[in-house]
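BUG-568 | component: ligand-complex export | severity: low

The export step for flavin-adenine dinucleotide jobs runs without errors, but we want the raw record kept on the ticket for reference. Input record follows.
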Amino acid sequence: MGDEKITIKSYRDIPITPVSLGRMSVNKTGSWRNAEPFYEEKAPPCNLSCPAGTDVVDFLHLIGEGKYQEGWELILNTNPFPGICGRVCPHPCERDCNRGNMGGTVNVHMLERFLADVNFDRKLKPRFIESRKKQSIGVIGSGPAGLSCAYQLARRGYKTTVYEALPEAGGMMRLGIPDYRLPKDVLEQEIDYIIAHGVELKLNTRVGHDISFEEIRKKHDAVFIGTGFLLSRSLGADGEDLEDVLPGIEVLRKIAFKDDIALGDRIVVVGGGNTAMDVARSVLRMGSQPRVVYRRSRQEMPAIAEEIEDLLQEGIPIDFLTLPVKVHGDENGSILKVECVRMELGEPDASGRRRPIPIEGSNFEIEADMVITAIGEQPDLRFLPSDVKSESWGILVDGYGRTNLEDIFAGGDTATGEGTVTHAVGRGRQAAIAIDSYLQGKDLPPCEEIERYLQDRSRHMVTWEEINPAYFNLEERIEPRGIPIPQRVESFEEIYSGFSEAEALKEAQRCFSCGTCPECDNCLIFCPDAAISRVPGSRYQINYDYCKGCGICVAECPRNSMSIKVLK
Ligand code: FAD
C-alpha cells in the first residue's frame, strides 16, 4: 500500500483483513520455552539465626495483619518465653536482617515482646499435641533449658517433674537478670503457662542434697539436666578472701530474692560480661558508686552490646585494659584499695579474642569499699554420677542433647554453654524431641528435620542483593522509649516500654518477608502471558502451556520467593 492514507468513515471502508476467530488458548506458546519459573520459598536470615527455631517472618506477618493472638501462639510452639526473649535476647535474628540496608534492621525483639504484652493475662488453654503417655521425665533445673524441655514434653503428653534447688523457678531469668530489664510478673506469667500444661514443679529440692541423682533416675524413664552455671569463677588475686569481696551471682541472687545485703559506697566490679553489667547497674540503683574494671577493650566485652551502652549512659565508668592483681585490706578485713595492672592486647587466644598482656611497672591503685567479681560462671556438677561424661566446663552431649547414657540428656549453659536464654530454650526443645524419640523407640529425626530448628539451615538464605528494593519504602526502624536516665537509676522499674499497636503494625510491615511469599500478586500482574493464576487452597499456579520462560515474574518478585531453571 506504500504511503497511501486511508480514511475510515464506517466499517464498510475497512479493507479485507485476515482475523483469527478461534481463542488464543489453542496457541500453546509454552512449547517455545527453554526456562521454567517456579515458586521456591527460601530462608529469611532472621529464621536461620533464631536459636529457639522461631518462625520470625511468619509472626511478623501475622502482626502486620493484626492477628496478635495467632502470632503469639505461633511463637509458643517453639518458645514458651516470648515476653522474656522479647526483652533480653541479644536478638541474633536482627543481625543479618536485609532491612538493615533500608532504614535499619526490623526491630524483631520489640515485636516479639509486643505479642507477649498484648496477650498478657490472656489465658490460653494448654495445648497437648499428642495423647497422654505413661512415661515420666525428671528435669533438673528450672532455668529456660529445663522449663523449655519440660514444656515441650508436656505438650507431647508426658508427665514431667522439674526439680529446682531454689525457692522459686526461672534460673538466671529470675536470679540473674534484674527487674529493670525483665520484670518478675512477665517471668511469672510465662512460667504459669508452662505449669498449666501439667508440669510439676518441686522447689527447694537440690539434687545431690535433698534427693540423689540415682533416685531421680529410678523414678523417671528419662532425665534432662539443665542446671546452668551457678558458680562464680575466682579472680585468682591476692586478698580475694577478704570479707568484702563478693561473687557477682551471689549479689544478684540476694537482690532478686530481696535478702539483706550490705553494700559498700565505692564498689569495683570486675568483669566484662552480662553479670558484671547487671551487678554494676543494680548496685548503682541501690545507692552505691560502681566502677567496672575489665582486662580487655570494649570490642572484646562479652556482654550484650545494648547493656554496655546503657551502663555507660547511666554514668558508670569502665576501666578498660585493667586487671586487679591484689586487694589490700586493713587489719579488720575491710577493703582499702584494689591494686590493678594495665594491660595491652596481644594475639588472639582460643576464644578468638585478643589476649591481654600485663604492662610491666604499670600498677596503680583504686580506692574501694567493696569488690564484686563477675569474671564468668561455671557449672556445679557435684551431684552427677561419674559414669555421665563431663568436663570442667560442662556435660558432654551430642547435637540432640544426648549424653553417653541413653536415658540421660542435658542442655543449656551446663552442656552447650552458649550463654543466652534463647539458646537454652532451643536446646531444651531439641532434647525434648530426642527424649520423645528415645521413649517411643522411634528413630531420631536428622538434626535438619527437628521441626524448624536447624531445618532452615539447609535452605538458601536470601541476601540483600536478591531483594528487589524498588518495591519497598525507605522507613526508619522504630526504637522503644526509655525512662530518662536520671529517673531510671533511681529504681528497678523496667526501663523500656513496649510498642503501641500503631508502632507494632508499622514496624512489622517494614519486614521484607525475605524468601517467603505473602501473596503480593506481583508475579501474576507482571506475567505477559497471563500464565499465572490464583488457585483456591494454594497460592499461585503457573500454566506452563503458556509460560514462555521470560522470567519477568522472577525478576519482579520483591523478595526472591521464586526461582527459574533452564530446561535442557
Ligand atoms: P540457668 O538459667 O542457670 O538455670 C539453672 C537452674 O538449675 C537454676 O534455677 C538452678 O538453681 C538450678 N539448679 C542448679 N543445680 C541444681 C541442682 N543440683 N538441683 C536442682 N536444681 C539445680 N541471657 C540472655 O539471653 N540475655 C540476657 O540479657 C542475659 N543476661 C544475663 C545476666 C546475668 C546476670 C546472667 C548470670 C546471665 C544472663 N544471661 C542472659 C544468660 C542466661 O540467663 C543463661 O544463659 C540461661 O539462663 C541459661 O539457662 P539454663 O536453663 O541453662 O540455666
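Assignee comment: Attached the raw record above. Confidence is low (pLDDT under 50) at residues 451-456.
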